[in-house]
Amino acid sequence: MARGGIYCVMRSDELRNADRKQWLRMDLWKMVVIRVESGINCEVIAVQNETREEILSKIHGVDALLWATHIKIDKEILDAAGSQMKTIGSMSAGYNHIDLEELKKRGIKMGNTPKVLNAAVADTAILLGLAASRRLHEGRLLIQDGKWNPSEWILGQDIAGSTVGIIGLGGIGSATARRLQAFEVKEIVYTGHREKPEGIELGARFIPLNESDYLIRNSDFIFVSVPLTPETEGMCNEEFFSKMKKTAVFVNTSRGKVVDQKALVKALKQGQIFAAGLDVMTPEPLPTDDELLTLPNVDVNFCFHTGEVPRQKTREAMGKLTVENIVKGLKGEPMITPVVSNGRTNTRRTKNRTLTVTGRRKYFNLPIHIAVNSVYYYCVIG
Ligand SMILES: O=CC(=O)O
Question: Do 248 and 217 belong together in one domain?
Fold first, then answer.
């Protein structure tokens, strides 16, 4: 049975006492409060830990879920929620952690948050690309070790005049390309299933997938911005890295599993490629003794798969869009950015996306986790 009424577990004194790490949570909280104030009969429950067990124990009877964690939404979660739960808002652009087939079977609508995070993730891609190309991390390590020796310091790779390859010219890929233009690159090439109008606007040259070797072999920088699908999983493997230029920089802001990480480590260790900048890794959180962290030529995003998170406005926009999707879903209206509508996958938006994604992904503790429960919201505060 669906629950009802207004019920807020998170109290205002918790908000006042929130430390710096909680500012993101507070934004979401404000958003939820706005919703409550604007007359939606809303129950809010804060869950203190982001664990599957805790979520499982608390979602029974909800009417909707606002999912701001990469914990997998699968049969078990859906069963725990119950058959009345027909609406999910995922606060993410990617949805490889959601079993879409299972949603379709159960007639559950699901929306995500594309576009609003493009700029923030593209900024992260550029940040990582530049940091890796200029050996930022390595330089810091040398200074720390007292090895200040500018004359022997081999500078990194130039981005000006370079050929940049983008794998996946979607929203994030295009935003990355737009930023790259300001760096006076020589050429941007991209690959994917089809030529994109955005590519033409950006003056980027399309390389069909079956000729993508050209992109791999000729790019000075490779930016990966594809969704994780069975097709892209492990796509950047030993063969891929062996084709790259020894001077090339590899940047991944998509999903860790798109890369065969062992192959990447090998390529970095053996100097098959120059450096890598990573926003995403496998697993997440990356174990502190992972070999990746021992390599001087790897720049790992200081915010751990949070390309979009450090931007407060972005996070807020993602939250708002998620809530709008949910509210619309609950009212029986079309979601603003649907992935699965009325139990069917929205084909317009998902044309180039693989619909069935399996495999549990364990992610870091996102600061905000909210499940929305029909006219009540269920907050999972990590
Ligand atoms: O990784 C983040 C997202 O998919 O939004």
Answer: yes
Mean pLDDT, contiguous 10-residue spans, the chain (382 residues): 29 36 41 42 50 80 76 94 86 93 96 93 95 90 86 83 98 98 97 96 97 98 96 97 97 96 96 95 90 87 57 71 79 90 52 20 27 31 28
pLDDT tens digits along 231-247? 999 999 999 999 999 99
Token reading at 95: 């949805």
Ligand 1 center from residue 141 Cα (angstroms): 30
Q: Which of 275, 308, 341 is the last residue of a domain?
A: 308
Distance between CA atoms of residues 189 and 293, nearest Å? 30
Which of 70, 97, 137, 305 is catalytic? The answer is 305
Tell whether 168 and 268 lie within a shared domain: yes
Query: What is the residue with the minimal CA distance to atom 5 of ligand 1?
Result: 92
- pTM of the predicted protein model: 0.80
> How many folded domains does the chain comprise?
2
**Cα within 13 Å of Cα(356), Cβ side:** 4
Distance 292 CA to ligand 1 centre (A): 22
Find out whether 89 and 111 touch, Cβ atoms under 8 Å.
Answer: yes
Interface confidence, given as ipTM, is 0.93
Report pLDDT for 310: 52
Q: Are residues 159 and 271 in the same domain?
A: yes
Do 172 and 277 fall into the same domain?
Answer: yes
**Ligand 1 pocket residue status of 226, Cβ below 6 Å:** no
Exposure string of 80-90, with b = 16+ CB inside 10 Å and e = fewer, is: bbeeebbbbbb
Structural domain span for residue 269 = 118-308
Looking at the fold, whether 164 and 303 belong to one and the same domain comes out as yes
Per-residue tokens: 158: 């130039």
